[in-house]
What does this fold into?
Amino acid sequence: MVAHGPLALLAALAALTLASPAGAAVAGLVAIATYVRWGTGWLVAVGGAQAVLGPAVAVGPATAAASALLGSAALLVATPRSVPAAVAIGTTAALLACGPAGGDGVLARLVATVVCVAAAFGVSRLPHLRRRTVAALVASAVAVALAI
It folds into this structure.
């Protein structure tokens, strides 16, 4: 998985994939939480920090780790019923939770990607997308609050 470019571009692509205004808000809030947590809007810096320090869900104060976990979960919960969307959102959630695959921790990051893609696929098959998206909005807002 490659993690280069601005976080805003990843958020915009996730917003398009989530395919609703509420989904776009989820993607935006998760990007804000990630920016606040790592202090940068560049994916290469976020990935570099995770390569050195460890996965976002396991590093730092407990509130920051919980923020990363909630942000990734919010993306997964908002996934629409589509295999390409599940792959894209699952991969994005894994990137934000565990960073890109690098020299160290390749297995952990690969497992995170497989688990997140499978979770996105499974969740996307559940009914009530609107209710799931509202829950994702709440989770992503809490992720921002925890990142501060």
Observations:
- DSSP finds seven helices and no strands in the chain.
- Residues 106-124 form the longest helix (19 residues).
- Residues 3 and 43 are 5 Å apart (CA to CA).
